[in-house]
Specification:
The chain is of the alpha/beta class. The protein has two domains: 92 residues, Rossmann fold, CATH 3.40.50.20; 108 residues, 3 Solenoid (UDP N-Acetylglucosamine Acyltransferase, domain 1), CATH 2.160.10.10. 14% of the residues lie in helices and 27% in strands. It contains three helices and 23 strands. The strands form four sheets. It has a seven-stranded parallel sheet, with helices on one face. A six-stranded parallel sheet has the order 7-10-13-16-19-22, with no helix packed on it. A five-stranded parallel sheet has the order 3-2-1-4-5, with helices on both faces. Strand 4, helix 3 and strand 5 form a beta-alpha-beta unit. The longest helix has 13 residues. It is globular and about 60 Å long.
């Protein structure tokens, strides 16, 4: 029997669960969402509280199962914590890929990635481990993305771009061809990146001006 553990009980975690229920139902016999100790247990799907995870995985009901996992939230430090926990429990990272996503045959994809509907990963792109590539994201040819990155809906990564680890790219942002983004960078939504960005930076090109209406 195969069991899938989805870390998280909201937003992207629910999106991942719905993809699994629609397109992976013949692969996994049981799907659990791992939720915080203070979160309410959902009536809509099976959950396990954080504090009960080790006990549940080692229980008689699951001890003989193959157990797989994927991370469904963007907090990079929490992602690493859960990855280490799952690996210590001998769980295996898996990819969840929506069937409408296009992945070039020459692209290389690691483990633990969620690739959402209508995303495009072009020729010779390299995707590391445990990334969230959300709806309608485009990753250009020969681009490289390390691990634990979140690319929000509609973001564009041009060809030959290099992304480090633990990067968050906001919705509908654009990274110009050949640029390099260092580790632990936050890029705001609707931001145009036309230069290399050093690690531990926050980028935003939005300058909103608000004027009082004259009637």
């Amino acid at each position: 029997m195969k069991v899938l553990l989805i870390a998280g009980g909201k937003s992207t975690s629910i999106e991942i669960r719905e993809v699994v229920e629609q397109f992976y139902k013949d692969i996994y016999d049981i799907v659990y969402n791992i939720i915080g100790d203070n979160e309410e247990i959902s009536d809509a799907f099976d959950t396990i509280k954080d504090k009960d995870l080790k006990l549940k995985v080692n229980s008689r009901s699951l001890s003989s199962c193959e157990i797989f996992y994927i991370i469904g939230f963007s907090n990079p430090l929490l992602r690493v914590k859960f990855i280490n926990l799952f690996e210590s429990l001998r769980c295996k990272a898996i990819n969840v890929i929506h069937p409408s996503a296009y992945i070039a045959t020459s692209a290389i994809i690691g483990e633990g990635n969620y690739i959402a509907a209508n995303s495009v990963i072009s020729s010779n792109a390299k995707i590391g481990n445990h990334n969230i590539i959300n709806y309608s994201v485009t990753i250009g040819h020969d681009a490289s993305i390390d691990s634990n990155c979140t690319l929000n809906p509609g973001s564009r990564v041009s060809g030959n771009v290099t992304l480090g680890n633990r990067i968050l790219i906001g919705a509908n942002s654009f990274i110009f061809q050949g640029k390099a983004i260092g580790n632990d960078v936050l890029i705001d939504a609707l931001t145009y990146i036309d230069r290399d960005i050093p690690e531990n930076s926050i980028c935003s090109s939005k300058q909103v001006k608000v004027f009082k209406r004259v009637q």
